[in-house]
Amino acid sequence: MRTATINRSTSETSIAVSVNLDGTGAYTVSTGVGFFDHMLEQLSRHSLIDLDVKTVGDLHIDQHHTVEDTGLAIGEAIAKALGDKRGIRRYADALSPMDETLARVAIDISGRPYLVWKTEFSQKKLGEMDTEMFEHFFHSFAQTAGVTLHIETLYGQNNHHIAEAAFKGVARALREAVEIDPRKAGVIPSTKGVL
User: Fold this and answer.
1) Family assignment (predicted)?
2) Distance of CA 101 to the CA centre of its chain
């Protein structure tokens, strides 16, 4: 089983994350930020990665540390569960429609963290979540997961749909990228021999 558990504690947050890359999309998520929980549930359900997240953060200040550190912990857990990445497909992309919105996501589990974010919101908040934190979450996730991640909203108007299309697109691309390729099950997918 490709599983991992990460416990991350600072003076700002206390986080426990468990993942199972070969799961069914089962989740238990609690961050104290309702809309963020909803997006992480989408990430789990549509990637088929089982996700258990318990974050206690300094929400009396703002959401920044809670969202950032949760992204760091989830990325770290996925990287740990991937191990040496032997046999994975590595690359994947997804088009993610959500009513009037269409998002495009591409991922490379490269060991080289990078985020390209081409998504804008016309509201400052969705529920109680600051919309500027979505980009920051994916940046933090990409850093510790060691992935190159491109997220672009091709078009859309409803801010909820824009956020959800991005998370579902990442989920669907991640699902494919972490899968074991039966044609190369024992091989690291790089000419360098290491990722």
Assistant:
1) Belongs to the imidazoleglycerol-phosphate dehydratase family.
2) 19
